[in-house]
Amino acid sequence: MATRKYQGKKFEKSASLRAVDSLTVEEALQININNKPFTVSMRTPGDDLSLVRGMLHSEGILSNSTFTPDLILKKENDEGIVTIVDLTIPKNELGEGYVNSRSLLSVSSCGICGRTELGELSFLGKIIDDSLKIDIAILNQLFVKMNDLQHSFHQSGGTHAAAAFSLEGKLLYAMEDIGRHNAVDKIIGKLILNKQLKNASVLTVSGRVSYEIIIKCFKAGIPFLAAVSAPSSLAVDYAKELGITLFAFCREDRATCYANPQRIKPTNTKNKAC
């Protein structure tokens, strides 16, 4: 259930009328690890397994990214929406993200908190390889494909979307959620659960890009990130440092590259945005 119907009163100039609108559902999901509460995620119900698996990867909760923990959808409310997820993870499989964890309700993918310089980002891992090249002409096609699958957004206007593609532009998965970060976690989790992570080269998102999304993209090993809206300054700084080719303002046939343009295949375009 991604949307619910709500009644309202719509005002236009001097007139008013009753309205029934579809609104995006936002519900809490409590995630327990080894019988202890770990975090609460405010998300749009659906694809909870993908959300949790993606979060485990993005937050560094697992020491081995290939390990699949036992996961039980424990409790449902009156509408059949899952409210609690229980995870069983052996101690030797728990990563630094679990050991150093704080409340992830307010801190999403904050592996860099407490660091004072960008130069310290080497702790996240090796910079993504530069060998892959992208044809910038395919970007618009990617967003068309993602938009076609934004069913909840078309009903409510209240969800964000993320989608994963191969380097050639083949759609792997598209996900929606009320939270931008959740949509990305759902994509990463879906890729992991279906053993498709290595085939994902491009991640598209429907909103703006913060540094957290750059970190998630980096930890998933995805070299290209494209967004409809603007990046933050920190997102650009981290993309440059971590080897992510970052595109923003991707609308129709336009895009601005803010980081690592060396991965773009040469074209005849006069675009000097990078």
The structural domain count equals 2
Low-confidence stretches: 103-118
Annotated CATH homologous superfamily of the largest domain: Cytidine Deaminase, domain 2
Number of DSSP E strands: 12
If strands are numbered along the chain, what order do they take across the biggest sheet? 8-7-9-10-11-12
CATH architecture of the largest domain: 3-Layer(aba) Sandwich
Structural class label:
alpha/beta
Using the coordinates above, name the CATH class of the largest domain.
Alpha Beta
Distance between the termini: 41 Å
Shape, principal axes of CA atoms: flat
Helix content: 10-25%
Give the integer mean of the pLDDT values.
87
Number of helical regions = 7
Write the layout of secondary structure elements.
Blueprint: E1 3-12, E2 15-24, E3 27-33, E4 36-43, H1 48-58, E5 70-76, E6 82-88, H2 96-99, H3 139-148, H4 151-156, E7 160-165, E8 171-177, H5 180-193, E9 202-205, H6 211-219, E10 224-227, H7 233-242, E11 245-251, E12 254-259
Parallel strand pairs: 3-6, 9-10, 10-11
Antiparallel strand pairs: 1-2, 3-4, 5-6, 7-8, 7-9, 11-12
Helix pairs in contact: 1-5, 5-6, 6-7
